[in-house]
Amino acid sequence: MTRHNLAALIAAFALIAVPTLGLADGGAAHKTKQTLPIRLGTSGGSVNDVSKAFCCGGTLGSAVLCNGTMHILSNNHVLGRSGSAVAGEDTAQPGLIDSGCRATGSNIVGDYLGNIVPLGTANVDAALSVARGGAVRTTGEILDIGVPCAIPATAAIGMPVAKSGRTSGLTTGQVRDLNLTVSVQYQRGCSSGKKFTVTYTNQISVTPGSFLVSGDSGSLMVTNDANHQPVGLLYAGSSTIGIANPVQDVINAFAPRCGGAFSFVGGTCTPLASTTTGGPTATQLASATRVKERHERGLMASPTILGVGVGEADEGSGEAVVRVYVERGQSHAPIPDALDGVRVQVVPTDRIVALDGPGACDR
């Protein structure tokens, strides 16, 4: 999710260099009004996601079928305004941030389905908008990626992944942690209102931090190969990591609300040669996961410990570790070098947030 700020702020932020990786166009084509039907991986959000000084938007990530009807998948904090939106609220492309805070400069491509999976439930930050007739390409095409495979893939440590998002366009990275318990900060209104935290379990982290930046929330994370299989729904991050809901958790959240019929829109998968590059064995990861689960409650009791997951100590090391993310510059209780015989790796990072950032509001 991203924010439109006062014009005075844009000059200051113009001085900040934003690092990117693997960009196709740096996001430029992802922010413009498209000719219908649209490709996804594009700027979008609610037409009501606006306050006095700000307007907001994120990424319309992918196309899905819910009970046989085409829908747009993104985050609750993008389409549903963190639970504040009402069913039927218009979904705009591009989002207000890219149309001068005026919906008249955007396509209206969908109608918010409602807060059917509230934040803090079902372990996902996800929402659907019913696609309007002729508004979205029936192939599910995503900018810079093309037509994804409709069959999801399960994340694995070191898996190469890609995403197409509003701000940074096409970026590539790799899965760093699995089974991540993480605290994510939100704000009730459009860069206004009370901040609150939601804790998720079983999340995926991705590196580098530039994989996901402000405005990319809602992007679909796919395998970085010829198939582009859905792996996760991206929604939060820090300068160090991006965070995604596992794709199966998203499916499980919506399937009961879609009459048991929820699937991604896309093509078929092509058989590919194995790209396995080693890493910890399944047995090692299972052992580290059990240790992590025994100790995570005690670790996460400290407000400056932001996440605890399981990953590989260093690329190619083959050693499974419990990884602990601590808030940079803040004190915390001592963290042991090992837990029950499994090494602990401590990573300082800034606070993990449902991604938002400033820009100029010219209403």
Structure in words:
With 363 residues, the protein is mainly beta. Helices cover 11% and strands 34% of the residues. The protein contains 4 helices and 20 strands. It has helices at 7-14, 76-79, 247-254, 282-300, and strands at 2-3, 42-46, 56-60, 62-66, 69-74, 90-93, 107-112, 127-131, 160-165, 169-187, 195-207, 220-223, 230-237, 242-246, 262-264, 305-312, 320-327, 338-339, 342-349, 353-354. Residues 4-24 and 357-363 have low confidence and may be disordered.
The number of distinct β-strands equals 20
Element pattern in H and E: EHEEEEHEEEEEEEEEHEHEEEEE
Low-pLDDT windows of residues = 4-24, 357-363
Q: Give the fraction of residues assigned to helices.
A: 10-25%
List the helices and strands and how they pair.
Layout: E1 2-3, H1 7-14, E2 42-46, E3 56-60, E4 62-66, E5 69-74, H2 76-79, E6 90-93, E7 107-112, E8 127-131, E9 160-165, E10 169-187, E11 195-207, E12 220-223, E13 230-237, E14 242-246, H3 247-254, E15 262-264, H4 282-300, E16 305-312, E17 320-327, E18 338-339, E19 342-349, E20 353-354
Parallel strand pairs: 17-19
Antiparallel strand pairs: 1-3, 2-3, 2-6, 4-5, 4-15, 5-8, 6-7, 7-8, 9-10, 9-12, 10-11, 10-16, 11-14, 12-13, 13-14, 13-20, 16-17, 18-19
